[in-house]
Specification:
By secondary structure, this protein is an alpha/beta fold. The protein has 13 helices and 13 strands. Strand 2 and strand 3 (32-42) form a beta hairpin.
């Protein structure tokens, strides 16, 4: 059955991470998924997912279908976010808002659903062409670190698998990496990739580097301001932070590509886009290629940064369509 005939009206879609909850009403019109209305909430300022949905929909809007992308594993009816106190029951939300069907999907799977449909103009290339590769690692840097594995088929479809690669141990590359990890180990125990390669990790890295350089730590400095100072005013400490963060991201991308056997790596999310000038610089690509017993393993593996917005929201809609098509097929 044509899933476009099943979804005849507006659909509630959500992209819920550890920091932000983005909600939208979407509709497929003329083959294009359009966002008709949107809102964003801070997860720390709302008591629950249901509260945010209720505020967004109000008393009158009651779409028949909903798709929720969440930063955490999706197993069974109960969903718990990895980096937030939020959690919910799929069946309870269906009942509370009268949805005919609500589906939940890992947020990196949702972003990968949308990313597999991007064209060349929607991806900034860092050494090679990503969009034509059959085996793709999708890496999302946000409040946490998400990784999905994509295998494209000859029929144009794709198999997407969520992973917990963000919780793999971070492997120091040089002496400075070792010093940073040694300082963090007392606080975190085993240091994993997302301790460093994430939005909070960027801030933690900046504070650590300032302390190591006997510089005063600015307690209220967030990641966006660190990146802004680095690129707009060429602030020395912020430049060092952005440079070291990019190198760490290159190491993680290399490890992911080697483990997955990926033919390409696609970075998604606002943080990757904001760091694009640094990622295009030679040291990032060089660090990526300096992995494995021989440097040639990754020399021909392209990296791309997705420039398109709303990948999580659009991908959630695509996931809902696939779920309904499977049910009615």
């Amino acid at each position: 059955m044509d899933c476009a005939r099943v979804i005849s009206g507006e659909v509630l879609v959500a992209d819920i991470g550890g920091t932000n909850c983005r909600l939208a009403l979407c509709k497929r019109e003329g083959g294009v998924i359009s966002i008709l209305r949107r809102a964003a909430y801070l997860t720390g300022e709302r008591p629950s997912v249901a509260d945010a949905i209720g505020e967004f929909l109000g008393p009158d809007l009651r779409p028949a279908y909903a798709a929720v992308a969440v930063a955490g594993p999706v197993e069974g009816d109960t969903i718990e976010l990895t980096n937030s106190y939020w959690g919910f029951s799929i069946s309870a939300l269906e009942h509370a808002f009268g949805f005919t069907r609500l589906v939940a999907v890992n947020d990196l799977v949702a972003q990968a659903e949308a990313a597999t449909r991007l064209g060349r103009d929607d991806i900034a290339s860092i050494g090679g062409e990503v969009s034509a590769c059959a085996r793709l690692a999708v890496v999302g840097v946000g409040t946490g670190l998400g990784v999905a594995s994509v295998s494209r088929g000859g029929d144009g479809g794709a198999t997407i698998v969520a992973t917990e690669a963000g919780h793999a141990g971070f492997a120091p590359f040089d002496a400075l990496d070792l010093q940073i990890i040694e300082q963090w180990h007392a606080e975190t125990g085993r240091v994993v990739d997302e301790h460093l390669v994430s939005g909070p990790g960027l801030v933690r890295l900046h504070n650590t580097l300032r302390t190591m350089r006997n510089q005063k730590v600015e307690a209220d400095l967030d990641g966006r301001e660190i990146v802004r100072r680095a690129f707009e005013v060429e602030d020395g400490p912020c430049l060092e932070t952005v440079h070291r963060f990019a190198l760490a991201l290159a190491s993680v991308c290399a490890d992911v590509a080697l483990v997955q056997g990926a033919e390409a790596v696609l970075l998604v999310g606002d943080i990757a886009k904001s760091l694009l000038p640094e990622l295009r610089a030679a040291p990032f690509r060089a660090r990526f290629e300096q992995h494995g017993p021989r440097r040639g393993f990754l020399a021909h593996v392209p990296i791309g940064v997705a420039l398109a917005t709303d990948l999580g929201l659009i991908g959630a809609y695509h996931f809902l369509e696939r779920a309904l098509a499977s049910k009615h097929g």
